[in-house]
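Following up on my earlier thread - several people asked me to post the actual chain instead of describing it. Fair enough. Here it is, all 280 residues.
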Amino acid sequence: MHLFVDNLINIDFSYLDRQRGLVGETWLANTTLDGALDSQGMVCDFGIVKKTLRHWLDDQLDHRLLVPTLSPDLELANHGGQISLIWPLASGEQISVSGPEQAFALVETESIHPQAVANWSVRQMAGAFPTHVDQLKLSFDSETIEGAFYHYSHGLKKHLGNCQRIAHGHRSRIQVFVGGQRSRELEQQWAQRWRDIYLGTREDLQGEDPKTLRFAYQAQQGRFTLALPSRCCVVIDCDTTVEQLAQYIANTLAGELPGQEITVRAYEGLGKGAIASAQQ
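Reply from S.P.:
Thanks for posting it. Predicted structure:
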């Protein structure tokens, strides 16, 4: 007998990729459980399935940086619970990150992709369900977005939850209205502008040269640092909350289109975000 739960939970995170660099992502989790029926006539109570899986995915993957530990190019060290790593890019550049171990998911795979992360997650959850459950299957999907979207990573040092982690991210749609009329052209332009971008706050910028930007801050969970190619970054004079990002986009577009009222509907992952307007 098979039991399934679709769209169980969505997770927001970032991962390391040789070609794309630091990639913000949002996935939807789906699960299937195979097994015999219990005394209640169930493979497993839906409440147990949802609670167990949601808790594990939220705790172990959401708002973390996923690191493929079997990649031969990765340099990784753990000193007393503080992880530091160097990730070389195909371009010859590199990304370096450090932070408390709870900000990382060390996934035993050579590269991060949905099936590899799903297989690893299932192995980690071995024994989490009743013994009559023979097999747990997990899959990840991306939201279907017909319009423009971008992948971004960031960190919010003032946040009291897991958003304070310096390298987590989202796959986010964007909608732009000019004088009340939607502009798909501007949406696509902005999506290209912020394709696989890191959005950093200027006060967290610790050093820069023509090729590399270095960010660092102390947050409630610990000390975080990040260095990555300048071409992969946009530095903003405010915190990178979705409210501030929506206003930043609206203000930028208003400056480029004087006299026009600009309204931006910016998403942070799936089904949530902020609306901001500007006119110059």
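The chain has one domain: 1-171+198-235. That should answer part of your original question.
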